[in-house]
Amino acid sequence: MSLPIVKISNLDKYFGRLHVLRNIDLEVPERQVVCLIGRSGSGKSTLLRCINFLEDPSHGIVEVDGIRVPVEVKGKERRQLVHDVRLKTGMVFQEFNLFPHMSVLENVIEGPITVKGMDRKLAVELAEQSLDSVGMLWKKDEFPLRLSGGQKQRVAIARALTMQPRVMLFDEPTSALDPELIGEVLNVMKKVASEGMTMIVVTHEMGFAREVADRVLVMSEGELIEDATPEDLFNQPKDPRTKALIDRYRTGEQ
Amino acid sequence: MATTTQQGQAPLSQAERLYQAQLRKERQFRANVGVSWAILFFFLIFLFSGQSIEVGSFNFQTIELDTAFILKNIAFIAEGLWQTLLISVLSILFAMILALLAALGRLSTFPPIYAISTFYVSLIRGTPLYLQIFFFFLALPQLGIILSGIVAGVMALGLNYGAYMSEVFRAGLSSVGKGQREAAMALGMTPGQTMRRIVLPQALRFAIPPMGNDFISMTKDSALVSATGFVHELMWRATKVGRAQFNNLEALIMAAMFYWTLTLILTYFQGKLEARLARGDR
């Protein structure tokens, strides 16, 4: 098996006195789609945010595509490593976080031009490709204000993809959407998965997890309590907490 | 246009009619306010018209102004407009730079920078503007630092407004959500790039309307600089000719009219600018 794209070892995270991640170990190989589920407050978003250092781990090692960042490394060296990791990761947020003062196209070319120093013409070309792949090219001159939630999230996905990351991190990408808009975003995510992108998705969408994920991780109180294929997880959950979680979603879906 | 229920044309929908009625109501309100303003204005003019009116046995005498004095001195006072505007524009530019630096300093995690920023704001806001102006004109020369009138005025006004405006910038900076910074960081932007490309443009848009207000009030506070006698702006000219010929009433009224007109013009542009910025907002 190839080198894992994401490797997390002995990861702990405290918010003040609150122990939100407890000794997490995780490896995600290339092209795998991992869904991270759990009740709110279980630490799943924090774990995701530790991968690109939007949260600083309190202890442990995060490694992305061969770039190893132990907590002990500080200062300038650390900033450089974190920067390198962020270039390897694309992030999609629950609240989209598009830049409201830039048009759709400007949002997408901002990263390549400012961060990678890419030639504008090339950046536009790449951006238009990714906007096309999420079905948003026709809105490239609009401002985010004028887009629906689903459209904003598709642009946000295109923005992350244009940086050509090795792994995409999705932090509850459909939780802020009206129910009728969830489908278009999930479809784009399925497409991204089918193109072989490594993905880690924090989600409440059990349907998506069952259909698209290669692997589902369950978190509870800062611990990974279950790690299984969707079939096994949904049909024969090992941990009673997982069973309770799935039952809750089942009743919710009916 | 009001009767669109002619043959061949669809009658207006309920919603359209309600909307039209609402627009009409708003137009009427604005028109009535305009008329009332005009009445108040003419009443003010009338108060200073020097007429005498008899109502029954009472004789009302309105205030009479010395028109010869006004005509003779209006040009002299008007010349002060340029000085007023010049000192205001220079001061606001200086204030903006200071305000931005102070606001950024306030975000710093480096204690000395944070301290300088809060110290500056506290010192300036804790002392009167009038005192600060005199400090630059009268106290500094004692140390051998002699500034020209304009420079000293701009220093004092700029420092003062910079301290107050730093709060505007700070509000602007904090109006930009955490998610914006995170999105920029996730793309790999450095803190500097995040500030320049993502946070500042949004913060400035937020801060421009209140800065316009500050500019307008600065044009009026620039009158304080006249007290030092070195800057020949509107107020200085008005008091000079007023005192010399004991026509302070006329002189001050003239200056007031100039300030007011200036404010009205600036407020108009300020409104335009605000409307423009409101478009394409979040």
Largest chain interface and its two residue counts? A-B, 27 and 21 residues
Q: Kindly state the mean pLDDT of chain A as a whole number?
A: 93
What gap, in angstroms, lies between the N and C termini of chain A?
40 Å
Secondary structure class of chain B reads mainly alpha
Total of helices of chain B: 10
What's the number of domains of chain B?
2
Tell the overall outline of chain A: globular
Approximately what portion of the residues of chain A adopt beta-strand conformation? Answer: 25-35%
How far is the N terminus from the C terminus of chain B? 36 Å
Mean pLDDT of chain B: 89
Largest sheet of chain B: 2 strands, antiparallel
Proportion in helices of chain A: 40-55%
* Main β-sheet, spatial strand arrangement of chain B: 1-2
List SSEs of chain A in N-to-C order: EEEHEEHEHHHEHEHEEHH
Number of beta-strand segments of chain B: 2
Oligomer: heterodimer
Question: Architecture of the largest domain in chain B, CATH level 2?
Answer: Orthogonal Bundle
Question: Which helices and strands appear, and what pairs or packs with what?
Answer:
The complex is a heterodimer of chains A (254) and B (282).
Chain A: E1 4-15, E2 18-29, E3 33-38, H1 44-51, E4 59-64, E5 67-70, H2 75-88, E6 89-92, H3 104-115, H4 120-133, H5 149-162, E7 167-171, H6 179-194, E8 198-202, H7 206-212, E9 215-220, E10 223-228, H8 230-235, H9 240-253
Parallel strand pairs in A: 3-8, 3-9, 6-7, 7-8
Antiparallel strand pairs in A: 1-2, 1-4, 4-5, 9-10
Chain B: H1 14-47, E1 52-55, E2 58-61, H2 67-78, H3 80-107, H4 111-125, H5 129-142, H6 149-175, H7 178-187, H8 191-221, H9 234-245, H10 248-278
Antiparallel strand pairs in B: 1-2
Helix pairs in contact in B: 2-9, 2-10, 3-4, 3-6, 3-8, 3-9, 4-6, 5-6, 6-8, 7-8, 8-10, 9-10
